[in-house]
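hey
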């Protein structure tokens, strides 16, 4: 058996975007693979028969995405087309074979498109507001290299410069080769959904000209009349997930975000009268998934069928497939197996899900919607699993000093020998409203293969346990810190073969914040790897994409109204106490946790005589560990393990 290595990234198959044909007889899904030579990813479409599970490769170009069914035998997708500007779409028969045929090209950057019938399509384009200056980010204006910002937010992680850019809802007429923009020039679309009869488009978003409005509205556009009606006005609450329940009712998850960590309330609207019906509170969000670094691509996490809303939901450290009756409000778990259901579609009384079970990577499973019985349909990653020693997480629970039960996970070193002393790493997830669970995580498996214990928990502030557990306004660095410190004590008592003097910590985003916080408050850890981290909330609140919305609510204060509160929540305030050698992993296009956080913390440690190293990955963003260029993902892992080896194995 082989040990897990850095370059195993090139052996993984990432599955996503399962989409069922209208009659439910077929599925199309995407298979992605890291390409070592091109330092990117190959994405091809695969076809599956839902009755037998038989599947075969459908496209071979390596860049096909955005699949939609035109009918039961033809699909629509997008792929680059040489020499053309805009977004090219192709039509392909799934039964007749042959090559895909060019269908049309929309002269805009299109991020989503689906058929309305009669050669019309609903979609989303990214477009400058009318009258706003349009030019590539790297092109000089009048001989000057200049970017002008006159609104907040001015950039967004993974999307780049967003000043005066908006996501706009359109209806495209393929015969006339023209589109109509449904939303106003300053309206930024958040989500949309087409009714089953293809006559209406529900959408959410908000209009702004200077400062982003995070409390969105809910609207319905009538494709026949061209008129838009308002169900929820912007500025009242955040309208999240939406889905049609037949042609006359619309489901919506709405959150007033009175405090950080609050869960949405579910409602059903009559689109003709505007009347709202409240559903029972389930104290969970739609779309929860277990954190991992081996997901790539997207897919649905909700769908309405026969008056029932099917959705993924975080439950402790797992992600389950659940269902709610939109008439009675009855809520139950369809399939609660350990692991993570990441996305799915429905066909013939079954869900076809991209899921992770045990320590297997993503595969496609069939789940009976009545019994919850599950069958695996693919084995893309089976050969890898059969040939490698993969550490199985040991799950346990413990009760903290406040009487709260928490879960814990422990990976033993590969080749573990009882009685020998080993180093260990505490991994901390991001969020904080996310979860870690039992699923395969490349970074953790690398550590186990390199002779480390790995342990992790879901401290207070995490998802999967209801909104009271997830509460995090004016919370950071308090109870969560206590939970992590106490969890370390529990693990050391549980595993006497861990050398308590050779324990490190590693985490990204909120996990990076916690690393920075912990090294300023304790010397018990021998090394730290702080990734895409936060150190100074004065900067985080004013320089990042979600600083004026999500972060402001989480901190619960602004620098000008309560500087002390903001500064006391900032790890940089305590950096002079840090004696722990710390590695900082950062991307220079991470607009979620801007690189100033890592640079300031690194500079403070160096000035105070503490060993530190800063690795700044050029051209990457907040998603470096999950969808960054393969060479950089591997380089990141090598840096982290190398740093821990230096201080925990010497």
């Amino acid at each position: 058996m082989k040990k897990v290595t850095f370059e195993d990234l090139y052996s993984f198959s990432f599955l996503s975007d399962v989409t069922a044909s209208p009659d439910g007889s077929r599925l199309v899904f995407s298979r992605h693979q890291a390409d070592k030579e091109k330092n990117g990813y190959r994405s091809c479409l695969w076809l599956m028969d839902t009755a037998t599970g038989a599947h075969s490769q459908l496209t071979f170009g390596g860049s096909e995405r955005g699949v939609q069914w035109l009918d039961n035998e033809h699909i629509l997708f997008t792929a680059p087309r040489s020499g053309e500007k805009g977004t090219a779409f192709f039509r392909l028969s799934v039964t007749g074979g042959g090559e895909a045929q060019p269908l049309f090209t929309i002269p805009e950057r299109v991020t989503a498109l689906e058929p309305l019938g009669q050669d019309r399509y609903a979609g989303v384009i990214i477009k400058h507001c009318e009258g706003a200056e349009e030019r590539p980010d790297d092109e000089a204006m009048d001989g000057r290299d200049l970017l002008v910002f006159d609104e907040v937010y001015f950039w967004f992680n993974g999307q780049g410069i967003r000043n005066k850019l908006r996501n706009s809802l359109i209806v495209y007429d393929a015969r006339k080769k023209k589109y109509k923009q449904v939303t106003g020039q300053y309206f930024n679309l958040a989500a949309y959904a087409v009714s089953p009869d293809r006559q209406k488009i529900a959408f959410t978003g908000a209009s702004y000209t200077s400062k982003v409005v995070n409390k969105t509205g809910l609207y319905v556009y009538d494709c026949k009349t061209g008129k838009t009606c308002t169900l929820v006005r912007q500025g009242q609450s955040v309208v999240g997930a939406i889905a049609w329940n037949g042609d006359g009712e619309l489901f919506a998850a709405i959150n007033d975000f009175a405090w950080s960590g609050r869960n949405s309330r579910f409602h059903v609207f009559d689109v003709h009268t505007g009347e709202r019906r409240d559903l029972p509170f389930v104290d969970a969000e739609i779309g929860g998934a277990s954190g991992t670094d081996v997901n790539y691509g997207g897919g649905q996490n909700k769908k309405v069928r026969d008056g029932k809303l099917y959705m993924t939901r975080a439950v402790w450290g797992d992600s389950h497939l659940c269902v709610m009756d939109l008439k009675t409000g009855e809520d139950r778990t369809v399939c609660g197996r350990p692991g993570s259901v990441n996305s799915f579609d429905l066909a013939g009384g079954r869900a076809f899900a991209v899921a992770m079970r045990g320590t297997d990577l993503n595969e496609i499973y069939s789940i009976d919607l009545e019994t919850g019985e599950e069958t695996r349909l693919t084995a893309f990653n089976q050969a890898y699993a059969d040939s490698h020693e993969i550490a199985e997480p040991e799950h346990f629970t413990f009760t903290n000093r406040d009487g709260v039960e928490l879960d814990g996970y422990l990976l033993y070193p590969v080749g573990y020998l009882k009685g020998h002393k080993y180093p260990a790493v505490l991994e901390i997830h991001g969020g904080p409203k996310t979860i870690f669970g039992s699923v395969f995580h490349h970074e953790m498996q690398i550590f186990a293969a390199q002779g480390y214990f790995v342990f992790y928990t879901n401290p207070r502030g995490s998802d999967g346990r209801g909104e009271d557990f997830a509460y995090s306004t004016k919370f950071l660095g308090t109870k969560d810190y206590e939970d992590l410190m106490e969890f370390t004590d529990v693990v050391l008592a549980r595993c006497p073969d861990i050398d308590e003097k050779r324990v490190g910590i590693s985490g990204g985003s909120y996990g990076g914040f916690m690393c920075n916080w912990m090294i300023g408050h304790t010397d018990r850890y021998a090394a730290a790897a702080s990734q895409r981290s936060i150190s100074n909330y004065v900067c985080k609140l004013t320089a990042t994409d979600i600083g004026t919305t999500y972060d402001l609510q989480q901190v619960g204060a602004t620098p000008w109204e309560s500087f002390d509160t903001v500064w006391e929540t900032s790890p940089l305030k305590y950096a002079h106490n840090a004696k722990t050698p710390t590695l900082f992993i950062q991307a220079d296009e991470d607009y979620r946790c801007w690189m100033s956080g890592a640079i300031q913390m690194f500079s403070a440690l160096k000035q105070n005589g503490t060993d530190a190293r800063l690795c700044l990955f050029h051209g990457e963003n907040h998603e470096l560990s999950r969808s960054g260029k393969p060479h950089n993902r591997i380089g990141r892992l090598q840096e982290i393990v190398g740093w821990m080896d230096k201080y925990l194995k010497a």
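The longest strand covers residues 498-508. The chain has a mean pLDDT of 96.
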